[in-house]
């Protein structure tokens, strides 16, 4: 891969993150905690998409959980079919179909489950289905110039509809319990400690790959057009660009990122359920992004990790207070640190680091600089 | 008015019977006018005469209720905004419309006529031709020393120049300017007139302006709009002495 587009500072940040994910965490944490970090990192995929879509493009989606679910369910359907071999399910009235279908008096595998017998096809569908779905929503909304708050509300409604649909269609989706009891991937048992260890690395490497793709998009002219669109949509339109196409593109890209995260969630955690698709997880993804700093790709990863750690430790001690705490964190971020962790880093830590390392990073990040002058988020 | 029997295609832009109504109010009412190649046409008129609406209609921002706008052999009323731009029509807005969060270089680069599709933008290379052109335009708009500053830090007049520069790099055949010198200081105004004289070469320009001194300096022909209709049209000399124009507009 050609990495010429990266500035020195980006390379340094990427190296630090890679070191943290591939060396520090695996050595410092036990198997259980490492798996937990792996789970957190799957949300970071969605947060990365939101940085491009919301931070750069100004399109706030409150429905990224939908795409996370499309990826997650795609993977879960494949794993579930593999776990439901005729052998494993011979006590069912219809052997060879997932157990929850049998409980719901379904006697034949529905047509939309059929492609998930094939692993390559599953991988393709995990990427294509969310992209297509995002394309349909995006084309319907952006071509009609729906934007801002209206778009956010519609995406939130879609997240709600998706959850209701999954729960309602229990026989086809596993209902409120989701798809559970997943065992093997192409014959490889994913429940063992060694499998979890390997999956953690697969996840981390995929995350780093997605960051590279996101950086490429950010640093291309398309990235600058996104920033320009956020600021003066009409000027971009009357400079000869079809604004809607760019909005659709970035929304699809964010959807695909989230879907990769969802698929990796299923693999590492061993189930997928509607509790991960709805409004609350979708908003949490926005909070991760906001806390990390919505103009910063690395911020999105650190923000996701920080909020998720806080969530785990606080909800262990104060289960009732956690949601309030999360809300307060979001408000505090918006009010006092509109650029999140990345903003704090840039304003207080980076100058010192620069002095020590004598780094002169080029100001390659326009949206970033913008953050300095604006004190409130655009949406 | 066009001589009788002239073919519409002799004109760069032919607006015929153009009407737009907002909730029954006809902001532009059965308007017809023609702009020649390399002509500088200034539209003047009192507030609410429909001047900006005419530009909105031509560039596709507002949809016409009826009538036609022909640009070369293309019917603009049926095209999307970006297609109209690609056909060769550029528009400067009344308030400076630039990207505050990008540098001046990046502002200009976005208007460079290449890589306007999603894929084109992803694979766009900032090659020497782009750099040279941006440099060249930045020099014309008096901003060559500030290429890497954020546009947010420019003064009002400089922002106007930047937007003019963005249009210049776009290189439209028909350039539409909405009050290019409004809100400028005297010295900025003089520089802007100079700038406009540079950029209007080899293209047609449609300008809305209130500053009569400025209009006199640049206009080949003046169209006076009043209540969505043409009140008078012709040379500045003719329009200035038209009693109807004096009454509704210049008399104030």
Automatic annotation (TrEMBL), chain A:
Places the protein is found: Cell membrane
Listed transmembrane segments: 12-29, 41-70, 119-142, 149-168, 197-217, 238-265, 285-309, 321-345
PANTHER family, A to Z: HIGH-AFFINITY BRANCHED-CHAIN AMINO ACID TRANSPORT SYSTEM PERMEASE, SLR1201 PROTEIN
Organism taxonomic ancestry: Bacteria, Pseudomonadati, Pseudomonadota, Alphaproteobacteria, Hyphomicrobiales
GO molecular function: branched-chain amino acid transmembrane transporter activity
InterPro entries: ABC_transp_permease, ABC_transptr_urea_perm_UrtC, LivM-like
Membrane topology of the entry: Multi-pass membrane protein
Name of this chain's protein: ABC transporter permease
Native source organism of the sequence: Hansschlegelia plantiphila
Keywords, sorted A to Z: Cell membrane, Membrane, Transmembrane, Transmembrane helix
Keyword Magnesium: no
Database matches in Pfam families: BPD_transp_2
Keyword Oxidoreductase assigned: no
GO cellular component, one term: plasma membrane
TrEMBL record, chain B:
Domain ABC transporter: 13-252
InterPro entries: ABC_AA/LPS_Transport, ABC_transporter-like_ATP-bd, ABC_transptr_urea_ATP-bd_UrtD, BCA_ABC_TP_C, P-loop_NTPase
One GO term describing the cellular component: plasma membrane
Gene Ontology molecular function terms on file: ATP binding; ATP hydrolysis activity
Keyword Nucleotide-binding: yes
UniProt KW ATP-binding keyword: yes
SUPFAM superfamilies: P-loop containing nucleoside triphosphate hydrolases
Classification via Gene3D superfamilies: P-loop containing nucleotide triphosphate hydrolases
A Pfam family reported for this protein in Swiss-Prot or TrEMBL: ABC_tran
Coiled coil (UniProt feature): none
Keywords of the record: ATP-binding, Nucleotide-binding, Transport
PANTHER family on file: CONSERVED COMPONENT OF ABC TRANSPORTER FOR NATURAL AMINO ACIDS-RELATED (PTHR45772), HIGH-AFFINITY BRANCHED-CHAIN AMINO ACID TRANSPORT ATP-BINDING PROTEIN (PTHR45772:SF8)
Protein's name according to its UniProt entry: ABC transporter ATP-binding protein
Taxonomic source organism: Hansschlegelia plantiphila
Lineage of origin: Bacteria, Pseudomonadati, Pseudomonadota, Alphaproteobacteria, Hyphomicrobiales
